Amino acid sequence: MPVQYTSIVDEHLTVRSAAGIFDISHMGEITVSGSAAADFLNHILTNDIRKLAIGQGQYTLMCNERGGVIDDLYAYRIAQEFFLLIVNASRIEVDATWIRQQLEKFPQRNEIQFTDGSDNYAAVAVQGPKVKDFIAEVISGNAVGGTKVGCVTDLKKNEIGIFHFEKENVFAARTGYSGEDGFEIIGLNAAIEKIWDKTLAAGKPFGCVPAGLGARDTLRTEVCYPLYGHELDENTTPIEAGVGFFVVLDKGDFIGREVLAAQKANGVSKKCVAFKMTDKSAPPRPHYPVWIKDAKVGEVVSGTQSPSLGIGIGMGYVPTEFAKADTKIEIEIRGKRAAAVIVKKPIYTKI
Amino acid sequence: MSNVPNDLKYAKSHEWVRVSGDTATVGITDHAQHELTDIVFVELPAVGRKVKAGEACAVVESVKTASDIYSPVSGEILEVNQAVVDKPELVNTDPHGNGWFYKIKLSDAAELNALLTPENYKAQIG
């Protein structure tokens, strides 16, 4: 996927007001199945997989023993004993290696099948408030698996269905990474290629445009969704990153639980906060220092000019004592400090 | 296709130079603004600063990234264009006109011979 097709700002604003389609084929698709699959996933992931009925998905994290994040992902229960994990492109190999290692140590390993289908699968994300008006022209008919809806637009947030597309089956999930309503469609490479063309044709009267990685990043930054390698890494925990909601301590033991339980009980020393620039300045960028009262206290992890708000925005880590909305901070940009303020997440909300 | 006016000289790093006597006006090319897109911030050198050819002396920020701008010629900065600081989108809409960056007093006019002609620049950007 290119950074942009026309302009990041145009693509971004079109997704906010109408619709855009993103090629997200770089994402990884891992399947875990078998009678012990749910128990195994609950052992390696932080959210509680047992909450998922067939055809439902959840945001979840995979942590190491120190509570550091190996990856953040979406887990879908496609059938009672069959799970699909959508993982970050940059982490496919690390994830697959980690999962295989944990599987070898897992007592019921013989009742679990694991595949990395990332090379065979492609995916698109169709995002924006108008998507529901045309997506059924592309993914037509009723679901034959997952959540068995009569029409793709009957899927609710985080639900996934299997649909016939020409002679193939594709997954369609009502989710996304833009803060807008939309769908992610996953299937074999050839089918997704056709879905790309068909979506652009069906979406054209509704203003649907192809959108690139640049807009994907500005959209997710405005709504404060973490991006692996920025807000999350192996030395940062979900609690510090502000996604502790997806760490379920009462589901039984899982990798990283000890550290995460202690952090939930006793607090953490640093937290990921969102901020807005308050003076006219260059946009904040990753790795710029964060200052509070003449002390360097942290670092920006994501930063850009917000196309929706027309100001610089970002996220960064600061000591917990400062991690409160309305705290005045400064961002060091090429040796000069510019004023900013910590704000509640998300930075952008629809009016 | 990018606009490459015939009355300008060009640097390989995508700046243009308009010479008038012993001073020159400098900006970035239509091709450069098109590649950067959505320019949201421009930082210009201080008036009176002496810069060398090839020295980074301004910064252009698009939504995508921050890019250094290199002075195509050596000399002293005489004047900067406050209009592009106030309205950075001028660099997108009028890169060779109202979107100019700074005027510089040339210290070595021979440097101009090392710059690209419009034809050579067109060939570079293909």
Report on the architecture of this protein.
- The complex is a heterodimer of chains A (351) and B (126).
- With 351 residues, chain A is an alpha+beta fold.
- Chain A is built from eight helices and 18 strands.
- Chain A has two domains: 8-213, Probable tRNA modification gtpase trme, domain 1 (Gyrase A, domain 2); 269-351, Beta Barrel (Elongation Factor Tu (Ef-tu), domain 3), CATH 2.40.30.
- Chain A has a seven-stranded mixed sheet with strand order 8-9-10-11-7-1-12, sandwiched between helices.
- In chain A, a hairpin with a 2-residue loop joins strand 4 (69-79) and strand 5 (82-87).
- Chain A starts with 7 loop residues before the first helix and ends in an 8-residue tail after the last strand.
- Chain B has helices at 30-36, 82-86, 90-93, 118-125; strands spanning 9-10, 15-20, 23-28, 39-43, 50-51, 56-62, 66-70, 75-80, 102-106.
- With 126 residues, chain B is of the alpha+beta class.
- A six-stranded antiparallel sheet of chain B has the order 1-2-3-9-8-5. Chain B has a three-stranded antiparallel sheet with strand order 4-6-7, with no helix packed on it.
- Chain B has one domain: Beta Barrel (OB fold (Dihydrolipoamide Acetyltransferase, E2P)).
- Classes of the chains: A alpha+beta (351), B alpha+beta (126).
- At the A-B interface, loops of A face strand 4 and strand 6 of B.
Brief digest:
With 351 residues, chain A is α+β, with helices and mostly antiparallel strands. Helix content of chain A is 21%, strand content 32%. In chain A, the strands form 3 sheets. Chain A has a 7-stranded mixed beta sheet, sandwiched between helices.
Short key terms for the protein model shown above:
heterodimer, A: 351 residues, alpha+beta, Gyrase A, domain 2, Elongation Factor Tu (Ef-tu), domain 3, 2 domains, seven-stranded mixed β-sheet, 18 strands, globular, B: 126 residues, OB fold (Dihydrolipoamide Acetyltransferase, E2P), six-stranded antiparallel β-sheet, three-stranded antiparallel β-sheet
